[in-house]
Amino acid sequence: DAFNLTGRTALVTGASQGLGAGFAVTLAAAGAKVALAARQAGKLAELQKTIEDAGGTAHAVAMDVTDAASVRAAFDDAEAALGPVDVLVNNAGIAIPKPFLEVTEADWDAVVDTNLKGCFLAGQEAARRMSQHGGGSIINISSVLGQQVIGQLASYCASKAGLIHLTKAMGLELARVGVRVNAICPGYIETPMNSEFFHSPAGEKLVKGIAQRRLGQADDLDGALLLLASDASRYMTGTVVTVDGGFLLG
Ligand code: NAD
Predict the structure, then answer these.
(1) Of 11, 12, 16, 19, which is best to mutate to test ligand 1, by the most ligand atoms within 8 angstroms of its C-beta?
(2) What span, in angstroms and rounded, lies between the C-alpha atoms of 235 and 179?
(3) Intra-chain end-to-end CA distance of the chain, in Å
(4) Phi, psi at 61, each rounded to 5°
(5) Whose CA is closest to atom 21 on ligand 1?
(6) What CATH code is carried by the domain that includes residue 75?
(7) What is the ipTM of this complex?
(8) Is 156 a catalytic residue?
(9) Which domain holds residue 142?
(10) Is the CB of 245 under 6 A from ligand 1?
(11) What does the pLDDT profile of the chain (250 residues) look like in tens digits?
(12) Structural domain count, the chain
């Protein structure tokens, strides 16, 4: 079918937990060989086993997305094990919530280096290689907070908005070498890291502001992920797919 990824190789950054781990499982289940990338490759053993036990193929690589040499080495490692990367999911991301007047330069740099520069570095490395072997698909994980701001997350919101424009700029320039670049903007998705917050009074208030009146679950992103990873989206580039249960509708 249109969403089948058999014969393709995908690389997911920040795959050790949360949405990245879910993306890797979903891509493997659709037939892709998946390079799991995280700063500490040792943290990926369990996920690799989960994928292999389900009949899939996975390979763990060490990658710090803020470090160009680490990014390059990780692609070399992934491609030696699994063949040329056809799909990159730029998922690694961090947030440091703080009132704006208390944000330090180090906070700012950490967030922007990971969420924006990291997608540039991995995206450029992937695109250079993809352009040599017929093209590929790059999927940048932005956020609804790249489209609408909330308090105490200035650096995060700015980095995710920047990532939307980076997606469009890359889409424009890379179309001629067969590389498509699109973004997914998840709304509020429940993961082990944020579950406690979402079930606190403040979190529950936030959920009441979502049109569908529920949090997203990781697998709510699967449709958008498989669409953008596969040939089903062959005529889509530079687009933003929002998956938020209607949160942005207000
Ligand atoms: P998470 O904190 O569980 O996962 C983020 C992953 O990125 C972690 O594995 C972390 O180790 C990794 N990472 C951080 N810095 C890195 C670096 N320098 N190099 C390599 N890996 C690094 O968070 P999550 O909720 O799974 O979020 C995944 C992505 O989805 C992020 O980009 C986040 O901004 C985005 N997002 C999440 C939500 C949500 O509600 N969960 C909503 C919108 C967007």
Answers:
(1) 19
(2) 11
(3) 36
(4) -130, 150
(5) 14
(6) 3.40.50.720
(7) 0.99
(8) yes
(9) 9-241
(10) no
(11) 899 999 999 999 999 999 999 999 999 999 999 999 999 999 999 999 999 999 999 999 999 999 999 999 999 999 999 999 999 999 999 999 999 999 999 999 999 999 999 999 999 999 999 999 999 999 999 999 999 999 999 999 999 999 999 999 999 999 999 999 999 999 999 999 899 999 999 999 999 999 999 999 999 999 999 999 999 999 999 999 999 999 999 8
(12) 1
